[in-house]
Batch of 2 targets.
Target 1
Amino acid sequence: MNRRTTIVLLLVVVLLGAFLALTRTETLDIGGEEAEEEETFEVIPLFEEAAMDVAVAFSITDHETGDRFAAEMVEVGWEITESPSEPEGDLVIDVLRLDAAARSLTTLTATRQLSEIESLAEYGLDSARYTLAFNTIGGNQYALDIGGETVAGNSYYTQKPGDDLVSLVSAASLDTFVSFLSEPPYTEPMPTLEP
Amino acid sequence: MNDAPEKVVEIDRGVAKLVAAVLGIGGILVGVVGFTAVGSLADNLVAQIGLGVGAFGVLAYVLLDPPAVQAALTGRRARYASNSLLMSVAFVAILVLGFVVLMDLEEKVDFLTVDLTEDQQFSLSEQTLDLLAELEEPVHVIGFYTDWQGVLKDDAETWLKEYQFNSEGMLTYEFVDPELRPGEAAQYGATRPGVMVFTQGERTAEATLADERNMTGALIRVLGGEPKRLYALTGHGERSLEEFGDFSLQQAADTLRRENFEIETLNLFASGAVPDDADLVVIAGPTTQFRPQEVEALQAYLDAGGSAMIMMEPSATTGIRTSGVQDVAFSPDGGLLVTASADDTAKVWDAASLQETATLEGHGSDVQSAVFSPDGSQIATAGGDATVRLWETNGSEVAVLEGHQSTVWRVAWSPDGDRLASAGLDQAVIVWNAESGEAEQVLAGQSLVLDVAFSPDGTLVGAAFEDGSVRVWDTNGVEIANQRPHVGQSMAVAFSPDGSRLLSAAFDGTVGVLDVESGVATTHELYPDLALTDVTFAGEELVLVAAVDLTVRAWDADLESEQFALATEQTDFIWQVSVAPDGDTVAVASGDGSVELWSLAKRERLDTLRGHASGDPLLSYLADSWGLTVNDDLVVDPGGLFDEFTPVSFAYDTFSPITEPLARAQLPTFFTAARSIGAVETPPENVEVVPLVLTSNQGWGETNQAGVVQPDEADNPGPVAIVASAENMMTGARLLVVGDVDFAANASLQQESFGNLDLFVNAANWLAEAEELINIQPRSSTFRSFSPLPGPLYVLVILLSLCFVPAIVLAVGAGVWMQRRSRH
């Protein structure tokens, strides 16, 4: 190949490469800023260390109304220790609902975690509406502040006290506990066999 | 001590070089394959070992035979090879780098986009381009997409880039994650993730989907300010603008909503006036007449500068009586006649003098049917107000029977006078107790019920249905027969005097004969090219049928031959033929508002009764105040879409803002069973009438509807207009009249290669004085799917592409190599 041709070709390659390097660097700079805002989307355990543990007591507090619901496991099952309203008639504690709710506590997950937080007020977490707290059989205590709903209405903004991250938790998971404040888990007694 | 010399193992240098070469090439191959499979060298033991072994092999080869390597690198072949390699590398590098550079430039400056799709699905429509070009103030779009909506966001950005590029910077956009910035989403009113909010100043409009229709709709709304208010009239069987289904105008209405219209329904009879905030009134295919007071309310609105779009179906497509005298009956003694009319009244006449003796007013709507009780003391009427009413013959109302949900077409009295039967638009036949007024039986039909009759002994009820069927029940509601002798609408039924047969006349020119005992029906094709509207017995020997050629034809009782025909002088459909008790006098009621009396024996007209208001008040208003005539015909065009009754038009007025874009884009429109729109010879002062859409020169308006389809003197010669506009230059009032409503129905709008939607939307925008929005609507993209090839064809394609073509290349290469080798 003619030396001149080779030089021209190489020059073209170098020029194109230089242009690309320059423009790509600019893009990467911009992208870098975007990348910092880009958050992860995955199933994130909220209380990873409690995953193998068992919740034996939990409570949810409505900071707006002051209502509080609390239940704890006793030898014979679950006992409601605090409730905004008392059951009517012969209703008994709905142990199955309480048990299912308590089981879900240690495995609560977030669908997304936000780290670049400008203002907690935007997420309703500057003064959280609810606080969900629970104790495990291992003696550990956990808590989760629950703020506002997302635009889609399918998740709550939550934050663990002392944590910088804001976690999006499925509304379906948390509504179970929120509903205890308005409809405490009481049910009709199971029919018993008469001898 | 053993001094025996050490045995030296000699390795052949050639074998060593071979081993080194194999290790070198093999190792590099394994390394490359391993790297390709995993995509990384880290934690990729196979690739690392492969590349290590390969490097060792290459190094060993170089050390074992340095001269050969040197010769290979510096020899003549090597120089050629290296030149070729360098050229190839440089060429590929230029291609790759050039491509990447162009892509980078393309992102910054949209100069490379070429839309090669068939329906230009990635190109903005004229309407959007015009809007963007005329932006006077900046528009900012915020796309609210979460990070898990990457694909949707990419789609949105593709469109937004096009909008931004074509707005010359007047439209800008950004994306906001509504989960990350819920406050911003709330501030702009984003209702959910995955929407775009167009903003201009304080105004916002949301596009819920990333496509041109929704985005341009949002752009229009944000630019348009206050929405236009459209009132769709109800109460006359108009097509719905809300419901789904082929015949409703829901899609057209949705398009208007995207273009900043707010749509509400309005019952003019109930409201008494068009609201002040109306920008446009739409009348979508009424099936019953407007009442005079409703027309007055519409007139008042238009006189004040309002706008209206009126779409009218031909009467032939519905089989529905809409004008003139719709029923006539003799009293049992023959001394009186009663007539039911679309002018909202029934009237009682002296049969001899034809003097009016009483007017029955109360329906407040068109009266469809009237009949005397067997003892002649009372009259039963039925009408558009969904009631059956009982009257004394002097005109005083006795009772109102309520139970139907819609217009009642016909009412019949049982021979013993104990029961009444009524047939309605609600597809029900109701048997009433004439004494108490209670509904005894509600017999559900399968389509509109157009006629009902009692058998002579009063034990059976027969009914005619719009779907061409006839049914017979006993008075306990037990079905005796259900047959479908007709293809067209069954317009009327009549029992034979002995009650053994039920005759039915249909729009397809046939008469059905149902044997009541066996339940078997036979079809007699009396007039293949002539629709029939009524059938009745004249004694035991004659059967009279009314035909749309405005004749009454007499047949023998067995329908074997036509005996004679009575040619009326009436000018509109004959809706009813009634025989007097004397068996000779026949009353013929017509849509032109007249009743002719004939003698069967003499076969001559005895007299003509006129006394009802004729014609549709709305049509009269259009003719008198706007100079527009809605012709009672059916547009026929040999170049139709599916048949000659589905005219396709390319002939537009090129000066009207409504049709100019259609003409420019050469977009055809089609109409299904339309009627023509004409103009009076001398239009009213200050009114400018413009025919907008015309048939081809071969088209015409066939007045002999469902009859002989060929142009003749009685027809409206073509080309005829199907759409016409009118504007009052003094008041600013605007009117658009279309001789069809199906053109804007959902089923028609599926045909996107036609401009039906554009015609409808442009007309609405013109009427609402939003001319800046008139143009061609964005099209939705054609959905294409891949259908896997059938097995053998698939194998053939695979063999051809993967085996045959490479084999040819290999064979040619081998041939060249062998030829060159043989030369050396």
Note: Chain A has three helices and eleven strands.
Target 2
Amino acid sequence: MNFRKASALAAAVVALSLTATACGSDDGGDGAGNGGGGSGDGGGSTVTIGIKFDQPGLGLQTPDGDFEGFDVDVATYVANELGYDAEDIEWKEAISAERENMIKNGDVDFVVATYSITDQRKEEVSFAGPYFIAQQDLLIRADDEVTDVEQINDLNLCSVAGSTSAQNVAEKFAPDAELQEYGGYSECLTGLENKAVDALTTDDAILAGYASQDAHAGKFKLAGLELNPEHYGIGVPKDDTELRDKINAALEKMVEDGSWARFVETHFGPAGYEAADAPEITETD
Amino acid sequence: MFEFLDLERYDLLGAFWVTVQLAVYSAIGSLILGTVLAAMRVSPVPVMRGFGTAYVNVVRNIPLTVVIVFTSLGLFQTLGIALGGEGFTETNFRLAVLGLATYTAAFVCEALRSGINTVPVGQAEAGRALGLTFFQVLTLIVLPQAFRAVVAPLANVLIALTKNTTVASAIGVAEAAYLMKSMVENESDALLPIFAVFAFGFIVLTLPTGLLLGRVSKRVAVKR
């Protein structure tokens, strides 16, 4: 039974990835076609994109060296629209604290790495998008229930040291909650499983990625609270309006042709994540 | 240039105070444990010598991050050992002190053992000839001279320990490196100045330690 389920799932994944690649190469053709003059410098050259290498569901390096995740799919789609084939993409790891510097130094062409649009960051870089609005949420054990924000004060929470999510807990919605902080989210999952903590809190997209991992399947679920929105954008060099507008156009197309909804379903669906509509593009000027 | 340094929002002094507390408690703990270990390594009992050697060689070769994260994930979250702490903040602080002391003790032990080697063997033999026990020879004759010889190496260990306290942020102890992470997250337009502030803070802590203990080591050294 388990084997059958697994093989059915595998078949579904293969089918999805086949359709994804098929549609990807179509778009590539389109891009080259209508790109015309633009494809002159794009043809044959490569594009370097900064992504997370360690974020399940968003940007994760697989054991065989490939990358998978929502951010990876979005980045691939955008790169296709800009006239680059999937094999012309060079992935680079973008650690959270280094993202601004990578863009400023020209190490990457753009960054798609759970990059929240904030005024602080706009001092250093420009954004396209947003392409996703994540809500801060709780990941709880599958047999637990948290229905409203008031309850959070009685919980033992876990998050990453110094992260915006961790700071929000103390400063905004649960000043009385106990907060355990670690260097990464994986450490929190141990405590959550052992009942040393009651919930792991950060953006729902990140949580959904962890809950969808094979090792944790069925153990955890999202509480479904909307605690604090984070607008994920694509980071581009400051005031590079041309690139930003091209990426915005690509993102709009991605939503229109249904690719966005499919990416969301593929990567966050298994955790019971219900996506709202795709966000409006706001980073136009 | 330093306008990001909003001291009402970021408790810089409080964070460095936690760093100092971590360093002081861990230093005391590691000094006691390290002395016991050094005594074991020179003791006439083979089992104790073996244990001391094994401890030093195992613990000093494990990365400190692994030790610290293990105290939290292994001892606290899995085995439920909270060291009597109420709430995560207190428990994590105590776990961090335990981890830092356990780790640093290996280095204190080795520094002290080198100090024991500076005491001429004839003195220990003379003590034995007078009928003193091993424990008496160690505490009355050898260790007092050994400590006076190793003040400078122990100052090195203490400075390393002070900087190693930054690893405690891996289990959420709100010390200086933890505050730095929050500031890096919020003030991403001023990364280098933030690093400069914290580097300066640590120099303020460790430079006087080194200078002071350097002078102490000259004053107390046994002139042979």
Note: Residues 2-35 of chain A form the longest helix (34 residues).
